[in-house]
Amino acid sequence: MPTLARTDSLARKARFAGLLYLVVIVTGLGAELGLRGPLVDFSDADATATAILAAPSQFRAAIATDLVMALSDAGIAILLYLIFRTVAPGLALSAMVFRLIQTVLIATSLMALLAAWLVLTSADALTDAPALALVFLDLHAHGYDLGLVFFGVNSLIMGVLIWRSGLFAKAFGAGLALAGVVYLIGSGLRFFAPDFLPVFLPAYGLTILAETAFCLRLLLQRGTT
């Protein structure tokens, strides 16, 4: 079974991937929990519309932050492929493709946020604009979870690659594989059993823990001594 050598070039790639991973974690959580989340109430279209129109800069910042996250995630996909391609070329390529599909879907779903904004700012020409805007906001949430289906598969593959690589402790591979399972279950619930999703949401804490741990490990990667 091939393993990775700790070269200076590999260490630089790993640290850069870790830096981008940190950007993804901060911007992803920041956009959802810090910026967009406080404005959106899926049970109250009028309150959501009022909140967004009262804080346009915050809503736009959430879109910009998600865009930064998507760009950083694309960079991670490429760097992790370059790191792990000698371990298992087919698996490394598959992981990159699934992660890039996730990135494209999440970036595309930002159009739903822009549509919600356009609807709300054109309220004089539209009937029941808050309800229509809420539909677009819900579409964005579903698009995000559709992306996480592909990211869940990516995480499972990355778990195998890390397990095989010999470069990182196998616990990191197991953690990412577990995160992949959580993403797949969570997205499945969003689409097929949404009533059970609120009960499952705390499980996403495992994904934050696993990905943050791997991010820090990448940042601390050293080359030859």
TrEMBL record:
Keyword Transferase: no
Pfam families noted in UniProt: DUF4386
Key words of the record: Membrane, Transmembrane, Transmembrane helix
InterPro entries in alphabetical order: DUF4386
Membrane-crossing residue ranges in chain numbering: 16-35, 61-84, 96-120, 146-164, 171-193, 199-220
UniProt name for this protein: DUF4386 domain-containing protein
Originating species: Roseovarius halotolerans
